[in-house]
Design goal:
The chain is of the alpha+beta class and 118 residues long. The protein has one domain (17-109): Histidine kinase-like ATPase, C-terminal domain (Heat Shock Protein 90, 2-Layer Sandwich), CATH 3.30.565.10. It has helices spanning 18-39, 78-85, and strands at residues 2-6, 43-51, 54-61, 91-96, 102-109. It has a five-stranded mixed sheet, with helices on one face. Strand 4 and strand 5 form a beta hairpin. Helix 1 packs antiparallel against helix 2. The chain is globular and about 40 Å long. The chain starts with a strand and ends in a 9-residue tail after the last strand.
Amino acid sequence: MRCRLEFPEDLPALPVAAETRHQLALGVREALTNVVRHARASEVVLSLRVEDRAMILRVADNGAGFDPASLKEGGHGLANLRSRLDPFGGSVKWESAPGEGTVVTFHIPLPSQPDFNS
């Protein structure tokens, strides 16, 4: 499987709490594990961007996809991704359709920086 990384060349130095980083890393690991175990993909793209005081990390594959309506509430896997980020004000969403791959998007709000210019 080919893995492509799409990260900006110049990321701003914004603080992210250790526990938030840890939970995000576990969530991304879960999303990548799902690609390897279930997607039958030939490519996965891991991308990161910062916009509107938020970090957005995306895992996208070109695999088999699935029907998101078939997810069981309270189950393991994708349903647990949401509970990892809720305590930090973060969110996760997945978009998929059978035969069209899957995109999992993590959204983490970033703390405000003090304005030293005022």
